[in-house]
Amino acid sequence: NRLNMPYEKRAEVSRNSIAKQLFTIMATKKTNLCISVDLTSSIQILNLLEKVGEHVCLVKTHVDIIEDFNTNFVEQLKQLATKFNFLLLEDRKFADIGNTVSLQYSKGVYKISEWADCVTVHSLPGEGILKALNSTSSDKNKGVLLLAEMSSEGNLITPDYTKATVRMAEKYPQLMTGFVCQNAVTFDDPGLVQLTPGVQLEKPKDNLGQVYNTPEKVIENGADVVVVGRGIVASKNPETEAVLYKNILWKSYSKRIMG
Ligand code: 5IU
């Protein structure tokens, strides 16, 4: 099964171009760390990425929290992605009807489709949301990470919802980069990425419902790419901390593929 397959082999079977690129970057840079840059200043984000860019395969953004968002920021973000060889995930969590999501994806202030390699999407509204993203023209190759589970306490996602989400994704193999989840929700397609947020070494939770696991635990649970936000971003020395997470995660993955 996919848990024992090395990333470079999984790249070969990915049907989505972003999943293929991501697996290839992970194998090349020897990192499965994704940093979540939940900062409200564009300068702070760019400065942080200068420091940690070489240690991550993916950068996860929430562009709608940036106070001084502008097109120059997007240009610099893209340049850093090229310089350090990482991909961009906008964690937009689209959740509306297809027509609205198509507009939210490509229009407005953020024009997400022009710079994001992939986006997060809720399965809640039904298949139309995937149909919309599939057909909306984009400046680049694109990918969707579908939310099959969440890390937060008391979330309303049930096992049936998770299963139905996996089934929905099966209809759009070219669009699907993978799933955002806490457990191995499917073993069917080794070309899909399991992205897991809710990871920190310091604390077991925050004050607003976030629940943390350790890096070792989430890799055991099937994570391929692991999202760390405040564990790195809020630390005194983000670069040192990024290296620490990177090393633990890569060691856990190496152990996993050994069986
Ligand atoms: N995020 C989660 N849990 C989820 C999903 C997304 O934490 O189930 I889906 C996002 C929220 C935040 C980041 O942007 O991942 C985690 O940040 P911290 O590591 O700072 O908690």
TrEMBL record:
Substrate binds at D38, K60, S151, Q210, G229, R230. Its EC number is 2.4.2.10, 4.1.1.23. It comes from the Eukaryota. Residues 32-245 form the Orotidine 5'-phosphate decarboxylase domain. The active site is at D91, K93, D96. GO terms for molecular function: orotate phosphoribosyltransferase activity; orotidine-5'-phosphate decarboxylase activity. Keywords: Decarboxylase, Glycosyltransferase, Lyase, Multifunctional enzyme, Pyrimidine biosynthesis, Transferase. One of its GO terms (biological process) is 'de novo' pyrimidine nucleobase biosynthetic process. The keyword Transit peptide does not apply. Pathway: Pyrimidine metabolism; UMP biosynthesis via de novo pathway; UMP from orotate: step 2/2; Pyrimidine metabolism; UMP biosynthesis via de novo pathway; UMP from orotate: step 1/2. The keyword Glycosyltransferase applies. In the C-terminal section; belongs to the OMP decarboxylase family. This is Uridine 5'-monophosphate synthase. It comes from Papilio xuthus. The chain holds residues 216 to 474 of 477 of the full protein.
